[in-house]
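TL;DR need structure tokens for one chain.
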Amino acid sequence: MKRVLIVDDSIAVARQLEKIIISSGTYKTVGHAKNGAEAIKMNQAEKPDIICMDMNMPVMDGLTALRTLMAMDPSAKVVMVTSLGGVGDKFAEALRLGARSVVSKPFDADTVLSTLGEL
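>> reply
TL;DR here they are.
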């Protein structure tokens, strides 16, 4: 089973994403970080196969955390998650910084699982 770290300041969103991930039978979650700083620490401790990370969070946002994660491990597989409409610039920046893909909230289970399956 591939191991997934969920990073989102909303517990409700994290639970929804976790439910989709676990339902596949292919993935399991290894934790939930509430911001980018926690994500960096948990990535070092848990060594997940995939990180699903929100773009907008307090303390450290997703793009800042992505920059740090990619500097530490250029092979990290990070999928950015966002609910922001019309954020083409942030999507492009996330991909430029090393994110493998971007998924939008509200989640479509098939889209989330096919995105993870491509990694």
